[in-house]
Design brief:
Layout: E1 6-13, E2 16-23, H1 30-37, E3 56-60, H2 74-80, E4 88-90, E5 104-107
Parallel strand pairs: 1-5
Antiparallel strand pairs: 1-2, 3-4, 3-5
Bound molecules: FE2/S2 (inorganic) cluster (FES).
Length: 109
């Protein structure tokens, strides 16, 4: 099996930043990675169905196309939470790939 490309980005939770390195598609999605490496409380409660919005993150930097790829019910779930900013996403809808390289991911309260 060929190892995927290395992806590097930063996750910030309550002002604490952590450098993350992962291989492309090492995790099912960004929510699973954050739960495994940062373990914020109550994060990703619906298990990645795009319904609970507890996995909401704000993304700075990285590839701008990352911010235009909303999936499935992401738009309506974020809308219900009043999150209309283009750089707010559900981390369960974000794949671990090169679009994340160099990004800073802020865990939204
Ligand atoms: S885990 Fe529930 S919306 Fe992402």
């Amino acid at each position: 099996m060929i190892a995927g490309e290395k992806i590097g980005f930063t996750v910030v939770e309550y002002g604490n930043s952590r450098k993350i390195e992962a291989c492309e598609n090492e995790y099912r999605n960004l929510m699973v990675l954050i739960n495994d490496q940062v373990y914020p409380e109550g994060f990703g409660e619906c298990g990645g169905q795009g319904r609970c919005a507890t996995c909401m993150v704000r993304i700075e930097g990285g590839d701008v196309s990352l911010l235009s790829e909303r999936h499935r019910n992401e738009e309506s779930t974020l809308g219900k939470k009043g999150a209309c900013s283009a750089n707010v996403r559900l981390s369960c809808q974000i794949l671990i790939n090169s679009l994340l390289n160099g990004a800073t991911v802020y865990i939204e309260e």
